[in-house]
Amino acid sequence: MDLRRAEIDAWIDTRCLLPGQNWKKEIPTIIQNSKLFIALISKYSLNKRGYIQREIKYALEVLKEVPSHDIYFIPVRLDESIPYDEGLLNLNWVDLYPSYSEGLRRILTSLTNLNKKPLEFLSPVKSILSEENSLIIENPNDHKYLTFGTRHAINYTPYRKFSDYVKDFIEKLPKSAIYSGLNYLYYITLLTKSEAVVLPPFLLEKYPNNIVLVLQHRYTNLKTEKDYFTVDLWFDNSRHNLKITYESIIQIVVPTIGLNIEKVI
């Protein structure tokens, strides 16, 4: 998850509660002791009765004890839902739509004062023991002991699939050619028939299977979203907006730095 990649010690009940723990007692304790509470709000969650409403109300009660100049409760919208609770309406919102990356950036700006917790990686395990409310895992290769607890990554790997790398790469590119060094150019090969890819009809006709796009001198308005990015490119002195999914990309080449990464199909 993206908070863990930023070395934020995020706690999620479905991932961090240990087997056998009393979740009705543990969750309020975690909310009370947390430095920040991030509530993901959607039309579904607002209209759903149950413990999720209790968690939000409990966090708002904790907020009353927090100094007015401190940030504790961060409401994050996943869609165009509007909350009913006055306590939520008084807080500045973050939207993860239409731009997930921009919303995540705004969230991270509120987390700059938190102590970072570097991710820890575990090797295959041999046995599990208990010690001081932590799980102790023995590494069968070198017989050293590694601890596993809520401060470790939640199912974290650098990239779970090729499209994760593509997304990370695209997000780091300059948003416009004016901010890019002229010696750098990026060749991006994609499958033109991939679902949700939007290209001008003349390109689809000319390149029915795949196309190599070159980002160098003339591109602008590069915007990254959760599953795709959009960019303005020029073809024959005509400007076109392209929508490209990360899944559709099969190769990225940057000759200047000797990078050539290709998806195995």
From TrEMBL:
It holds the Pfam family SspB. Residues 1-115 form the TIR domain. InterPro entries: SspB, SspB-like_sf, TIR_dom, Toll_tir_struct_dom_sf. It comes from the Bacteria. GO terms for biological process: signal transduction. This is TIR domain-containing protein. It comes from Spirosoma arboris.
